[in-house]
Write a structure and sequence with these properties.
CATH superfamily of the largest domain: Response regulator
Shape: globular
Strand order of the largest sheet: 2-1-3-4-5
CATH class of the largest domain: Alpha Beta
Strand content: 25-35%
Radius of gyration: 19 Å
Number of domains: 2
Helix content: 25-40%
Number of strands: 15
Order of helices and strands: EHEHEHEHEHEEEEEHEEEEEH
Structural class: alpha/beta
Length: 243
């Protein structure tokens, strides 16, 4: 199946050139383009691409700001004229970082990484089908020299930290080598709720719900953490909680 792709760049010539280069890859299907972050946000939400090529410096919001507004991000390959954003780009789990003008060989390397990632995801999906977790299950958590057996019902929050996730239970906040997306696939969605691109909360650990900026909500957990529910997820949260 072709990989559904959107090109996001404010420069028309850059979009034309990238589209031309991608024409050599039969497994890439360009389903749309966007000239800024606002336009891209609507198209990503409606078209659900699997991959985006994303410029960083655009009029209005940057490519980084666009990603922070997405509850779930497609795979991202940054395309930019600037070298200095590379480290920050990989904090967003970017698949690759290509500088303009895009070198065809570097583009091929980036798409090769995507194929490897798709294979790992399909393997993970097969494992998940037989290993979903309930809130009563215990999990083994290891962080450095420290280890815990924790019942999922005792975990109040998962927080994304790059390719890791921070797990909040009692006074402890260890890091585990799991992405938030991988965790979300295994957790019981009747108990654990994805509030935004960085957090999954245990619904039974919520002490207070307040209206928040731009139509969102602010949750206060039993550990004192305050977690924003994005505007889009707030509607789903209210339906689930009958608010």
């Amino acid at each position: 199946m072709p990989i559904r792709t959107i090109i996001i760049d404010d420069e028309r010539l850059a979009r034309v050139e990238l589209r031309k280069l991608l024409g050599d890859f039969s497994d890439i299907e360009i389903i749309d383009e966007a000239v800024n972050a606002e336009e891209a946000l609507g198209k990503i939400e409606s078209l659900q691409p699997e991959l985006i090529f994303l410029d960083i410096q655009m009029p209005g919001k940057t490519g980084f700001e666009l990603l922070t507004e997405l509850d779930r991000s497609p795979d991202v390959i940054f395309t930019t004229a600037y070298h200095e954003y590379a480290i920050k780009a990989f904090e967003f789990n970017a698949l690759d970082y290509l500088t303009k003008p895009v070198d065809p060989r570097r583009l091929a390397d980036a798409l090769q990484k995507l194929q490897g990632q798709d294979l790992r995801r399909s393997q993970t999906a097969m494992q998940v089908q037989t290993s979903s977790l309930s809130e009563h299950d215990q999990v083994f958590v290891k962080d450095g020299e420290r280890c815990w057996f924790v019942r999922l019902s005792e975990i109040r929050l998962f927080e994304s930290v790059g390719n890791y996730a921070r797990v909040f239970f009692g006074p402890n906040k260890p890091l585990i080598l799991k992405s938030l997306n991988a965790l979300e696939e295994r957790l019981d969605q009747r108990v654990f709720f994805r509030t935004n691109r960085k957090h999954i909360v245990n619904l039974r650990m919520i002490e207070k719900v307040e209206p928040y900026f731009n139509g969102g909500l602010l949750l206060e957990l039993k550990g004192g953490e305050k977690i924003e529910v994005s505007r889009r997820q707030s509607l789903r949260f209210k339906e689930m909680m009958s608010l």
